[in-house]
Amino acid sequence: MGTGIAEVLAKAGRDVIGIDISEAATAKAVAALEASTARAVERGRLTEDERADALARVRTSTDLRAAAGADLVIEVAPESYEIKQQIFRELDGIVRPRRSWRPAPTPSRSRGWPPTRPARSGCSVCTSSTRRRRCGWSRSSPPR
User: Fold this and answer.
1) Measured between alpha carbons, how far is residue 74 from residues 18, 40, 43, 51, 91 in Å?
2) Half-sphere exposure of residue 32, counting CA atoms within 13 Å on the CB side?
3) Model confidence pLDDT, tens digit, residues 77-95
4) Alpha-carbon dihedral of residues 92, 93, 97, 102, nearest 10 degrees?
5) What are the CA-CA distances from residue 129 to residues 4, 83, 102, 134 (Å)?
6) Which of 5, 68, 108, 138 has the highest Cβ tally under 10 A?
7) What pTM did the predictor assign?
8) pLDDT at position 1, please?
9) Which string of DSSP letters, residue by residue, matches the chain?
10) Mean pLDDT in residue range 57-68
11) Pick from 107, 99, 102, 98: which is nearest to 128 by CA?
């Protein structure tokens, strides 16, 4: 689910939908998020109210269709080109168009392959229109 990314976004006031492959995986991610925010409260980095607000902004799902209304979709799947290709193919039919003609951007935090690989390989996922709405980053850390 990308628990760290979800936490940063929720603490910044954004609503988050964490999507994972099973209910057990989403429950594990929520437990990690609860533990992490509890530690932040103990260390004085968050108040109890801020923690409660952040946790209230996070909901989970096992269905990619939960991302239909998203302004931003961040993919954090395992480092498998085939899995990522499948996810992007499904998201192409799910993510809604924004106010302009382009659908929501879908960054990938891939470390194993460059974000240009799909474009070079000629896969059906990255057509000329989808390349413009995807970006990639690697091993990023939120600013403190």
Assistant:
1) 10, 24, 28, 22, 11
2) 14
3) 887 888 888 888 888 888 8
4) 30
5) 30, 21, 8, 10
6) 108
7) 0.70
8) 65
9) --HHHHHHHHHTT--EEEE-SSHHHHHHHHHHHHHHHHHHHHTTSS-HHHHHHHHHTEEEES-GGGGTT-S---B---S-HHHHHHHHHHHHTTSPB-SSSSBPP--B--SSS-TTHHHHHT-SS--HHHHTT--B--S-----
10) 94
11) 102
Find tokens 């799902």 and name the residue. 61
Tokens in use for 23?
A: 């209910």
C-alpha closest to that of 102 among 71, 65, 136: 71
Burial class (CB in 10 A: 0-12, 13-18, 19+), 7: buried
- Residue 15 — very low, low, confident or very high, per pLDDT cuts 50/70/90? very high
Structure tokens given for 124: 């059906």
Structure tokens of 95?
Answer: 């993510």
- Please provide the size of the chain in residues: 144
Letter for the amino acid at 70? A
